[in-house]
Design a protein that fits this description.
Oligomer: single chain
Helix content: 40-55%
Number of helices: 25
Shape: globular
CATH class of the largest domain: Alpha Beta
Strand content: 5-15%
Distance between the termini: 50 Å
Number of domains: 4
Structural class: alpha/beta
CATH architecture of the largest domain: 3-Layer(aba) Sandwich
Radius of gyration: 26 Å
Amino acid sequence: MAGRRQAPDPSEVFAASSEASLRALAGPGTGKTFALIRRLARLLEEGVAPRRILVVTFARTAARDLVAAVARLGEAAAEELIPRTLHSYCFSVLGRERVLEATGRVPRIALDFERTLILADLEGPFGTLTERRELVLAFEAAWARLQSEDPGQPVAGLDQAFQDALLRSLRWHQAMLVGEVVPVALSYLRNNPQAGERTAFDHVLVDEYQDLNRAEQVVLDLLSENGGLAVIGDDDQSIYSFKSANPEGIREFAAVHPGTRDVEFLICRRCPHRVVAMAQTLIQRNPGRARGPLTARRVNPQGEIHNVQWRSTSDEAEGIADFIVANIEEGIDAGKCLVLANVRQIGYGIRDAIRTAGVECNSFFREEAVGTEAAQEAVTLLTLLARPSDRLALRAWLAIGSTTQRRPAYRRLLAAARDDDVDVWEVLRRLDAGEARIPYTGGAVERWRELRDALTALEPLRDDLEAVVDEILPDGDAELALLREPAIGALEEVDELSELAEAVRYGVSQREVPLEAAEVRVMSMHASKGLTADLVVLAGLVQGVVPRVDARLSEDEQQAQLEEQRRLFFVAMTRTTNILVFSSYSQLDAATAYRLQTRIGRRVAGGSFRTFASSFLDELGDECPEAIRGEDWEY
C-alpha cells in the first residue's frame, strides 16, 4: 500500500517558484522569514546580481537580520544585498535624484510634537486637531484612503484646501513630514517613465505586504514592472488602517496581478496549541479572510494560559511585575518577557513596578524620548545650536512651556516675517531691539531671549561634541535618558554638530524595538509585530480600550474598526511561545478615564469608575480559562 503523499513544504515552493507574480499568505509563526531567506539564497545561487534585487522589510532591524541569515547559508554575495524599508529606499531615491531640491522641498523631517504645531497653526476650516490629524494621514497616503482609490493629488474641496495650506506651511518652515516621502517618490516614479529606478530590479521581494497602503503598493508595482514581484503577508495581521493600509491590499493582490501563484503557510511553529486554537477561534469571526485556518505544529507545547482581573491599574502593575519576577527566578530569560499595553500610562506603570522589583525593563512607545517638555526643549536646543536658522525648531521653542503654544503671537510674527521676507528670528530680534512693534508678542520675545542666552552660553562648546551632549543631555536625568542614548552612540560616528543633532533626531523618530533583548520589554500591541517571547502579558484589556471603536462613525466604519482591533489582538496573543496572560482591571480613576475617553460604568468609592473586561475574551473559545481575581491568582 502506497504511503500518504506528503504536502510540499510551502517555504520550498515559495523559494523555487519562477512566476513573475507570487503571493505567500503566511500566518504568525509559520516560517515566512525563513521562506524569504531561502528565496533570496536561491536567486543568488542562480547568479542574480544582488544590486538587481530589492528587498523591502517592515523595519531596519529585520533588514539587517535578513542579510545575516542569508550569509549564514553560505551565500557570500548576501553582504551586497541592501534590504531596506520602503521609506528609506524612497528617501534615498529623492536625495540621489535631487527631486526634493527640484521641487523646493527641504529633507528636514518634523518630529511628532513639531508636526502637531504645524497642524494646529494652520488657518482654515479644517476642524479640530483630531480632524486635522486624520486629514494629514490621508495626505500621507496620497489621499488613497481605500484600497479601491487611486493615489494622487486632490482636485477640489477640503482635501485640496488642506493640502495647499499644509504645503505652504511646510515650505515656509523648510521641513517635511515623514509620511510625505513615499507619496513624493510615487509622483516622481509615475511621472518619469524614463527614471532608471523603474528598470533597476529583476526581482522585488516584499515582507509584511498587508501593512502597505495603496500609494506604497503602486510604488512597488512601478519598481517591479520589468521584473518579478513576490510578496509575503497575512490579511489577519493587517493593523495599520490609520495610515490607510487595508487588508484588501493583500486579499486582492492576485486580482490586480494576473497570473499570481499563491502559497499558503498554515502550520504555526511558534505558538502553543491552546494559543493557536484561541487565536483561530477569535479571528474566524472576521469576514472575507484570504488565508486558511491556522493550526499548531504537533510538537508545540500545550501552553500556559492565565486570565486575571485586578481591582485597579496599580494592583495590575504590581501583580504583573510579581508574576514576571517569579518566572525569571524560575529560569525564564528577562529578554524573553514581553508586556503589551495599548495605553502608554498602563505600560509605564508596569514597567516601573518591574524596575522597582529589581529587574531591568525598558519601554518602547512612539517618540517617548520627547514625551516631556524638558525633552522637547533639549532636542530643540540641540537642533538650534547646530542650525540657528531652523525655522521649525524656533517655532517649537516658542511653543514649549505655553498652554496656548503662543499660537496667536506666532501668527503675528509669521505674518510680519513673510511680509518682510525674513525669518521669524529676525522679527524677534527687531522687537527685542525696539526696531519694531507688534502687539501681544511680549511673551514670545521673552522666550526668544531665553533661547538667545542659552545658545550664547553653549557656543564655546560647539567644537567639543561630548561637552555639548553632557551640557544639553546630562547623565542621570531620567527625562533625557532616551535622548542621551542616541547622542552617546553617535559620538564615535560623527564629526560635526549638525551630524550629531541629526543623529539624535533620527534616533527619536526611528527608534525600533530590538528583536533580541536582555531586559523585559514593554510596548504597544502595534509595536510587537515581528517579535517572539516565551512569556507574553496582554495588559489593560478593558472594553473601550481593547477593542476601541469610535461611536461617532457609521455602522460600517465601526464594524471595520472592530475587525481591525480583532486582528490587533490576534497579532498580540500570537507573540508567545509558551506563557500567555490576559490581564484587566475593574476600576479606573476619573482623570485617566477622562483622558482615555473610554466607556466606563458607574462611579464607585474613591471617585473611580467601573470598567469591564474586553469583549474579545469571550471570543476566544473553550481554551480561554475562566477569569480569576488578582488576589486569588496562584502560579
